[in-house]
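Issue 218. Parser rejects a valid record. Input:
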Amino acid sequence: MTQYLDFEKQLADLEGKAGELRAMAEADGDVAEQAKALDDKAKARLKQLYKALSPWQKCQVARHPERPHCRDYVAELFTEFTPLAGDRNFADDHAVMGGLARLEGRPVVVIGHEKGHDTKTRLEHNFGMARPEGYRKAIRLMDLADRFRLPVVTLIDTPGAYPGKGAEERGQSEAIARSTQKCLQLGVPMVSVVVGEGGSGGAVGLATANRVAMLEHSVYSVISPEGCASILWKDSDKMREAAEALRLTAQDLRKLGVIDLIIPEPVGGAQRGPRETIRKVGAEIVEMIGTLEGMEATALRADRREKYVALGAKGLAS
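Output the parser choked on:
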């Protein structure tokens, strides 16, 4: 059953009525015509809604529970996936998954945030909020990639790193900083795709790559709109204003030069065409890796350094 967002209420009514009429269509040809007319109206409404989403609406789409998650991309795009667990220090963090795999026959290391798809798995994966051991696991996998000269692919989908007491006691900020540092030090190609939420340092720790892409309706920001509103206005209900101010959409971030590429989504978002979305993401990952292959380790590090030293300059110049 389709889960509708707040701004999709009219669409839900149209599609619900069309579904009811289709159920009656076998006995009445006139009803079938009415159902088709409602379907056409719903498609037009869907296209109109997604043509001009506000930043806050994009946040809602990015968080949609039916969007494909990391495990879906891994299952569809990668073969011979061998998951690797644990940080060899404290524990295995299920909010970050990763391992060795092949992408169109090419060996790679893939790492990503996993939110889970139902109540049980969301709790197991801590809603995609990684603890320090998750970032230390990512560092271990990136070290492995560097040693064996394998490209690194990261899939970003997190509201942010876990802010709990235990995480702070085990060095959350240090682990994120080390993970970001490791991204910059890699002598192999690294590409990242924000497939849902890119929240704060929790995202940056896995997304400081040579090439960064975002899905059309994903978001990437220094803080969540709710968190920003709580700090600036002492009122989390100001999240719409905060979303506007944060310039967190793929379109804004492309203009600022923060990301390199926007990957289009089906009309209605990735949740309405998950397999189509996954195929598009896979094609872009292959292309991005292709542009980096053949570069020496020093050139790859220099490419990354230049990218992040210049971050924001494009937006300031305009």
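Fixed in the parser; the record now loads. The chain is about 50% helix and 15% strand.
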